[in-house]
Amino acid sequence: MDPSDHRAQALSFGVAAAAYQRGRPPYPAEAIDWMVPATTRRVLDLGAGTGKLTRQLHERGLETIAVEPDGQMRAELTRRLPDVLALPGSAEAVPLPDGSVNTVVAAQVWHWVDTERALPEIARTLTPHGTLSVVWNTPDEREDWVSGLDRILHPRGTPRTSSAGVGIDAIQPPFAPPQYRTVEWRHCLTRAELLDLVTSGSSVIALPPADRTALLSEVRAFCDTHPALAGTDRITMPYVTHCYRTHLR
């Protein structure tokens, strides 16, 4: 993908900010416990989006700063978390002084990052021996209805690649080799929130309006007919959360 196209796609989520907030899941407490050391007092949520992880960090009593390049996503975060400092910026240009945070977390965004530029910036903002943690929630396609939904979203001939772990191999000194952990869990949502989850995907956002409408109609029909989903408004989505953790040497 051309770098300018990649950046445009990375910044496409703002038009679906409300759907993103409604449909995207939070992160399991077990994953956050592992990613954020107990000694952390000040944490940066990098590429914070609408603040899904920001809220969970803030509720732990941590001094939390959010950095998000998309103005619409940042506005949604500020509306929901008015007590959190939310700044424009990116992983490649962090608007914080040197050594200002103990931990940096990046949720669902590392595959959009230019690691060559971002890693020195993140290292600059961390205190000595500070931690960088990267995380992705991915639907668990071992469950039949989840794999069926994925086939609708990525029909035959459409490349299907997971973003989890992309860019991790670029982490190098002054960072230590990353550690890896997975957490399996389940998230309850309504049928409307499932449609919001679908709508907030970058590939769906990029579709022409008529194609997007047709796709959402197909998803609704799938929900009406699949035995695991038909006749209920409460859906339990299985997730695997992929966590990576490193620190400054």
Question: Nutshell version of this structure?
Answer:
This protein has ten helices and seven strands. The chain has helices at residues 3-10, 17-23, 29-35, 52-59, 71-80, 115-125, 144-153, 191-199, 202-205, 209-225, and strands at residues 42-46, 63-67, 85-87, 101-107, 126-139, 179-190, 234-247.
Explain this structure.
The structure is a single chain. With 249 residues, this protein is α/β, with parallel strands linked by helices. Helices cover 37% and strands 24% of the residues. The chain has 10 helices and 7 strands. A 7-stranded mixed sheet has the order 3-2-1-4-5-7-6. β4 (101-107), α6 (115-125) and β5 (126-139) form a beta-alpha-beta unit. The longest helix is centred in the C-terminal third of the chain and has 17 residues, at 209-225. The protein starts with a helix and ends with a strand. Residues 1-12 have low confidence and may be disordered.
Considering the chains and any ligands shown, give keywords for the structure.
249 residues; single chain; alpha/beta; 10 helices; 7 strands
* Mean model confidence by pLDDT: 91
What would you call the shape? globular
Portion in strands: 15-25%
- Poorly predicted segments: 1-12
Rg (C-alpha, Å): 18 Å
The share of residues in helices is: 25-40%
Count of distinct strands: 7
Largest sheet: 7 strands, mixed
Order of helices and strands: HHHEHEHEEHEHEHHHE
Give the N-to-C terminal Cα separation: 33 Å
Number of helices: 10
Main sheet: strand order:
3-2-1-4-5-7-6
User: Structural class per helix/strand content?
Assistant: alpha/beta
